[in-house]
Amino acid sequence: MPDNFQYDVFLSHNQADKPRVRRLAERLRAANLRVWFDEWVIQPGDDIYLAIERGLEASRTLVLCLSPAALGSDWVGLERGTVLFRDPSNAGRRFIPLLLADCKLPDTLRRYKYVDLRRETDAVFNEVFQAIEGKPVPKHEPQQPDVSSSTTSLRFDDRFVRPLHVTEDRFLQVLLSRFSLHRRREPGKESFDLRVAFDNDAPTIWNQSGKQHLRELLSPERRAEYQAAFENFLLHGHGADDYHVKDDKFVFRFSSGGTLPILSFSRNPGADEYYCLFFRDAHPVGWNIANGGSDTRAELLNPQAVIERELREELVIADFANDKRYVFPGDGGKPIDHPAFAVARELWARKCPDKNVAALNTAEVEIEWMPCHDSLRIQIGDDRPVRRQVF
């Protein structure tokens, strides 16, 4: 359905109903809808009310999740958000009440037919999807990766690689022999969905030396073959829209979260913006983005947490001319002696021996995450799969 909206659907709900609404949001996103869900959009330090207003303006459909909690103290605010969508003059917008639990509907809503989600079934989800899109849920679903067979014939040295459940709270990169990529084609753009699955016994790198150990085990020729295959699929659009990896003699490292910062010296979008690359002196030597492995199982399920931590560890911004050191929101007042900053401070001391980084005044740098339409689906063992939007 062509339109000028950034989001297909805005999910308005009460905090008490968040687990159920989160499940709905994940299913809608899995069906390739662009979903505004507060947990995925509102970042620490954002003005919550302003973010909600912007989300409503940018959404084609408002789904209002109704329950006793929603119709309690929050109802005045929720009703105010529905006005834009209930106005007949707003062509192209849709308003859909969604009943989560028995409750008495206000007079302003009784005239609207609601979707009954008191029972979460596939049939009801299909009804929700059709109410939003005006058509049934697409039948095509990418093949699910096989958790039970995520094994490899490679033999690792346990000084470097151990089962996941043994390596908790360390440098973590799970080694996968199976995963799936799905290409979504839309007019004027395409996006990708990465699906991974593993269990508690999945081999996991647990220290920096493990990466070198892995390079010694994997064939350079096979690495080059996979590199070419991924470039053809991801960059050149070759082949079918599903790409499945199944190779018990080769493994891929997950999870590495990475980001390419764009530094802006102006409040005007597109003006005075520069890519910020990082030079690494370890293999592979050269310019890179800010990236790294997970520290915890929680980060394995939330790559954005990895990205935010890596940015704080790798990006140090100092303005010696104006005696300022820029820090990320929430980091003001924290000590400057982060171990990851030691090399940077040593280099600064050589280049500017008369400048004391620790003596600079701190100021917060503004961060804006740039969302895209790619997505990641992660499943550990028999747990419910988790889907994440990519930024």
CATH arch. level architecture of the largest domain: 3-Layer(aba) Sandwich
Please, what is the CATH homologous superfamily of the largest domain?
A: Toll/interleukin-1 receptor homology (TIR) domain
Number of helices: 10
Outline type: globular
Detail the poorly predicted runs: 140-149
Strand element count? 23
Overall average pLDDT: 79
Task: Please report which band the strand proportion falls in: under 5%, 5-15%, 15-25%, 25-35%, 35-45% or over 45%.
Answer: 25-35%
Domain count: the total is 3
Percent of residues in helices comes to: 25-40%
Main β sheet profile: 5 strands, parallel
- Class of secondary structure makeup: alpha/beta
In the CATH hierarchy, the third-tier topology of the largest domain is known as Rossmann fold
Q: How far is it from the N-terminal to the C-terminal residue, by CA?
A: 24 Å
CATH class of the largest domain: Alpha Beta
